[in-house]
Backbone:
C-alpha cells in the first residue's frame, strides 16, 4: 500500500490531523502512543493489502493535532477517533492501538462497540502497575524516560533533534522510517525547535491511563475479539519487556510475542511492522 494523504477532521476545539494510507473498503483504525504521531504506523500501512485503508489520527495534543485543547484522556481520544472514521465514511474498522493507543482502542470499543470489528493491542492496553514516584511527572519519567524528557527540551536544528533520537537505546538501527517519524515531530522556530507533543496532554493522559475509570472499565467489560502483540523488549530497547508477564493478559485474549522487537521497533522496524500488518 503506497497511497498516502492527510486530512483534517472537525472535532471539539478545532481540527484533528489524520493520516490515511490506501483507498480500499476494509478499514483499519490505528492509534499511536503517548508522545508519538500517526507516522508511527507508516511501515505497517505499507505492508497492508490494497483493499485496506488505514486511518491513523494524530491524537489531540500530538503531531499536527498538537494545538487542540484539552480535556484529554482516553474517552476524549476515542471519540475523536470515531469522528475520523465518520469523516472518512468508515462504518466500522479493525481497531489497533500501540502503547497508550491500546488503551484508547479499548475505550473506543467500550464506548462505540458497533464501530469495532476486532481489536489488536500492540504492546499496550492491558493494565499496567502504577510506576514508582510521588508525582505524575516522576511516574511518567520512570515509564517512558527519554520520551518524557524531550518534551521540555529545545533543539538548535533538525540535526540536533535527530542526534538526540539516535542516542535513544531503542533505536540502535536507524532507518528512513524512524527519521521521517522523528522529523515530523519537530516544530518551532530555528534555534528553538521542540517536540509537537504537548506536555500537558501527555501528563493528563498518563494519569488517566494508569488510574482512570474509562480504561479500567473498558478492560473489565471487554467483549470484542481481541489479540495482544507483545514486544520482547521494553521502552529502552532491552529487558524487561513493558509487559514482562504475559499470563494475566493471556487469561483474557491470545498473546503473541514478537521476538527481537522492542516497544518502538514493533512498529518502526521492518520485522515488527510485518508481524503487525500480518495480524491486521
Residues:
Amino acid at each position: 500500500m503506497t497511497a498516502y494523504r492527510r486530512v483534517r477532521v472537525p472535532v471539539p476545539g478545532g481540527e484533528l490531523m489524520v493520516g490515511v494510507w490506501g483507498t480500499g473498503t476494509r478499514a483499519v483504525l490505528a492509534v499511536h502512543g503517548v508522545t508519538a504521531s500517526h507516522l508511527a504506523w507508516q511501515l505497517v500501512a505499507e505492508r497492508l493489502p490494497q483493499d485496506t485503508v488505514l486511518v491513523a489520527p494524530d491524537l489531540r495534543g500530538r503531531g499536527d493535532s498538537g494545538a487542540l485543547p484539552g480535556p484529554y484522556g482516553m474517552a476524549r481520544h476515542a471519540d475523536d477517533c470515531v469522528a475520523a472514521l465518520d469523516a472518512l465514511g468508515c462504518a466500522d474498522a479493525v481497531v489497533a492501538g500501540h502503547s497508550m493507543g491500546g488503551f484508547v482502542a479499548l475505550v473506543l470499543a467500550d464506548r462505540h462497540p458497533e464501530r469495532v470489528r476486532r481489536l489488536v493491542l500492540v504492546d499496550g492496553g492491558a493494565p499496567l502497575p502504577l510506576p514508582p514516584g510521588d508525582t505524575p511527572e516522576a511516574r511518567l519519567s520512570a515509564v517512558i524516560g527519554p520520551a518524557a524528557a524531550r518534551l521540555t527540551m529545545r533543539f538548535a536544528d533538525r540535526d540536533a533533534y535527530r542526534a538526540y533520537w539516535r542516542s535513544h537505546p531503542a533505536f540502535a538501527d536507524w532507518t528512513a522510517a524512524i527519521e521521517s517519524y522523528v522529523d515530523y515531530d519537530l516544530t518551532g522556530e530555528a534555534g528553538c525547535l521542540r517536540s509537537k507533543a504537548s506536555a500537558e496532554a501527555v501528563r493528563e493522559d498518563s494519569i488517566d491511563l494508569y488510574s482512570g475509570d474509562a480504561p479500567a472499565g473498558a478492560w473489565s467489560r471487554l467483549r470484542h475479539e481481541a489479540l495482544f502483540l507483545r514486544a520482547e523488549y521494553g521502552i529502552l530497547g532491552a529487558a524487561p519487556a513493558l509487559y514482562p508477564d504475559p499470563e494475566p493478559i493471556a487469561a483474557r485474549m491470545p498473546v503473541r510475542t514478537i521476538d527481537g522487537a522492542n516497544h518502538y521497533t514493533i512498529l518502526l522496524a521492518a520485522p515488527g511492522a510485518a508481524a503487525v500488518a500480518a495480524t491486521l
